[in-house]
Amino acid sequence: MDTETNKRISREVLERGFNQGDVTVFDEYMDPAGVDHQEPPGTNFIEHLKDVVVRMRTAFPDLHFEIHDILAEGDIVAFRSTMTGTHSGLFDMVPGRPIPATGRRLAVPHMHFVRVMNGKTTDLWHLWNIPMMMMQIGAMPQPQPSHM
Q1: 105-117 and 76-86: which strand pairing?
Q2: Can you list the domains of the chain with their CATH numbers?
Q3: What CA–CA distance (Å, rounded) separates 20 from 56?
Q4: Rounded to whole angstroms, how far apart are CA atoms 119 and 29?
């Protein structure tokens, strides 16, 4: 596949899966033997992503990712995005206690790297600013400036 096709697939997965909540996109574009490199070995790639979408959209029903930059070379696609939403439901995606809805809006930067081979995503590397998100939804105190 060419890099433009790989970028199109990556955009479609984010749009349909995360922005619209259509988890069937993972069956179409994810390799069942794929790896999410942030998860323990042996994690079911497709089922894990479906679970993430359901849980994120439960906590943030208006969840939306906006891609700001996207680059591709060979079979790797890299993109920078911002996740926005309103914390309107239970958030239970980070270690610790589940966080009840606070009604707060958030905007959290993300970096994604995916490998797309033969039209299927085989690898996912993903970074997001979890402390920033936790501060924005009120689950963690804002840092206070130090006075010296």
Answers
A1: antiparallel
A2: 3-136 (3.10.450.50)
A3: 12
A4: 7
Task: DSSP letter for 94, please.
Answer: S
For CA atoms 45, 51, 55, 58, the dihedral sign is: positive
CA gyration radius, the chain:
16
What is the number of residues in the chain?
148
Q: How far is Cα 23 from Cα 48, in angstroms, rounded to an integer?
A: 11
Joined tokens for residue 104: 């707060």
pLDDT at 142 over 90: no
Closest among 107, 68, 102, 55 to 84, alpha carbons compared:
107
Residue 148 has pLDDT above 70, yes or no: no
Per-residue pLDDT tens digits for 69-118: 999 999 999 999 999 999 999 999 877 789 999 999 999 999 999 999 99
